[in-house]
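Researcher: Quick test of sequence recovery. Tokens follow.
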């Protein structure tokens, strides 16, 4: 017994119009959404006082591995915003103390800003139009060797290493903050 079903017909798919302009490359499209702004405000509110962060009486070696683990986890979550500030300060220090790196970052930033400023305008080279994505590629090609020569990678990894050492030392040796037990009852 054979059954035959007719499935012939035409399906008209809607055409998706092509956009000529790249939305990725426009500086005007960069805006803080509500969620990002909320996260930044929440992190700003979580910054602990620096006198509490660096209080010397609270630093001592943990008794064992279990205490060290609990202490590190609590301290990292409690002082997270302070650790972010430590990273940013170290990165700023690293950039400002390296004039060549500062120049390379300025050239890269100015190049990207210039390309984004002339987003809708046509650029003709040798009679051919150059789209903005290739202009950004040119900025990247010029910036990459400059950043390499300036030691941007070394600066970044030095900053990450120094930050990890500071955070690891602080989180390991600072007494964990007292958190009230929500299930504790007074008798």
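Model:
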């Amino acid at each position: 017994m054979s059954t035959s079903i007719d499935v012939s017909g035409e399906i008209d798919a809607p055409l998706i119009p092509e956009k000529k302009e790249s939305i990725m490359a426009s500086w005007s499209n960069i805006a803080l959404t509500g969620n990002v702004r909320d996260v930044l405000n929440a992190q700003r509110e979580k910054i602990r006082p620096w006198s509490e962060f660096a209080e010397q009486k609270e630093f001592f070696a943990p008794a064992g591995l279990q205490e060290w683990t609990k202490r590190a986890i609590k301290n990292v979550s409690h002082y997270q915003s302070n650790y972010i500030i430590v990273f940013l300060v170290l990165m700023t220090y690293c950039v400002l103390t390296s004039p060549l790196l500062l120049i390379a970052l300025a050239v890269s930033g100015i190049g990207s800003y210039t390309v984004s400023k002339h987003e809708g305008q046509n650029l003709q080279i040798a009679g051919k139009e150059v789209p903005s994505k290739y202009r950004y590629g040119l900025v990247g090609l010029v910036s990459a060797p400059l950043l390499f020569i300036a030691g941007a990678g070394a600066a970044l990894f030095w900053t990450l290493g120094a930050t990890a050492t500071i955070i690891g030392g602080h989180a390991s040796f600072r007494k964990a903050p007292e958190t009230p037990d929500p299930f504790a009852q007074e008798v």
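The chain is about 55% helix and 0% strand.
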